[in-house]
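Holo model, glutamic acid. Inputs:
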Amino acid sequence: MPSAPSRVTSLSRRVSAISESATLAMDRRAKELVAAGQKVISFAAGEPDFPTPQMVVEAAARACHDPRAHHYTPAAGLPDLREAVALKTRRDSRLPVDASQVMITSGTKQAVSHAFTVLLDPGDEVLIPAPYWVTFPEAVALAGGVPVPVATDETTNFKLSVDDLERCVTDRTKALLFVSPSNPTGAVYRLEQMRAIGEWAAARGLWVVCDEIYDAFTYDGAEFNSLPAVVPELQPRAICLNGVAKAYAMTGWRVGWMVAAPTVISAAINLQSHVCGNISNVSQLAALAALQGGLEPVREMRAVFAQRRQRIAARLNALPGFECVPPEGAFYVFPSVQGLVGRSLEGHVVQGSADLADLLLDKAKVAVVPGDAFGAPGFLRFSYALSEEDMGVGLARLEALLS
Ligand code: GLU
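Output:
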C-alpha cells in the first residue's frame, strides 16, 4: 500500500506554526509543580488573586437554578448584557455606542481572535507594538494576516511614536493594534501621544483594534483613554475589546466583548454563530451582575494593586542585574535582566531571559514569564496579581538567590 502523502497526514500549517501561549504554559508548569507538592510561587499568569465579588457569585447561583439560563442565548449575547456593556463603554471609554455595537465573547481572547478573523485577508499586515501580549501575533497569523512588530524600548517607557509606525507601515498594512495600559509593560499613553498615533492611523485609513482590558488599572495620575474617543474619525474603523476578567476577578468565567460599528458586529455575529453559538448563559448573567453592581469591588482591587506595584517594583529594582521602568498601569512589572546575562548563578551561566526564567523556577521555585515570549528578550514579566504573602515569599527567594 502506498503511504498517504504528507499533505494528508500532517496537521494544518497554520496551526502547526503556532506554539502554546507562553503565559499559560508557565502558569501550567507552576500548577503542575504545586500539584506535585512543590511550593512554587507564581508571578506568571495575569490573574487577580481576589475572589469574584460575592453578589456576582450569588447572581450566578440563582441563574443555575433558573431553567431560562439553561438554554442558548442569541449568538451576540444576552440583550441586557449587551446593553450593560454599551453603558460601560459610554462611561469608561467615552464612545457613543449602543447595544447593537456589542458582541459578547468567550473572554477577551476570543474577541481578539474574532476581530482579526473579521478584518483580515491573507497577507494583510497588522502593526503590533512590541513588547506585545503573546497572543496577538498568533491571532493575526491564524486569521491569515501578517503580524508586524513595532519595536519600543525602555528609553520611551515602551511607548510608540509616529516615527516608529512610519518605519513599519507598508501598502499591505490594514490595522494597528493599540494597547494602553499595556500587558506586559504597564505603559499608559498620554493623551497627546494617543492623539498623534490616532491621527496618523486615521490619515492612512487604517483599522484600529484597541485592547482595553486593563482600563480600570492606572496609577500615579496616569489615565485610561480610548483611542477612538481621542480621535473620533477612527470610530467607524475601530474595534474595542474588553471584558470582566481583570476588573472583577472573573478570569475563569470567560466573558469578554467587542465593540465596533454595526457592520463589523454583524459579521462577527455570523462568525460566532458557527464557532461557538454563544457564551455560557450563566456566565453572561454573572457578568451582567458585575457590570450592574457598581465599581466598588474594582476600586478596592485597584487600591491594593497600586500598593503592591510600589513594593514589587522597589524590591525588583534593588536586585542585582534588574532594572524596571515604573509601570503606570495593568498589574505587571517588566524589568530588564540584561545585567544578569553571562553571570554565574549556582554554577549555571545565565544565557538570556528564557534561560533565567527556567533557572528561577528550578532553583528558587519562582515562576515568571520570559520577555522572549512578548517579543522582548532580555526582560522578565512579573504579575503582581498574586497574594501579598506569596509576593513577599517569592521576592525573598529571588533576593536569596541573586544577592
Ligand atoms: N492575559 C493574561 C496574561 O497575560 C492571562 C493569560 C493569557 O491568557 O495569556 O497573563
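The chain has two domains: 6-51+297-402, 71-292. The domain at 6-51+297-402 is CATH 3.90.1150.10 (Aspartate Aminotransferase, domain 1).
Archived with the compound record.
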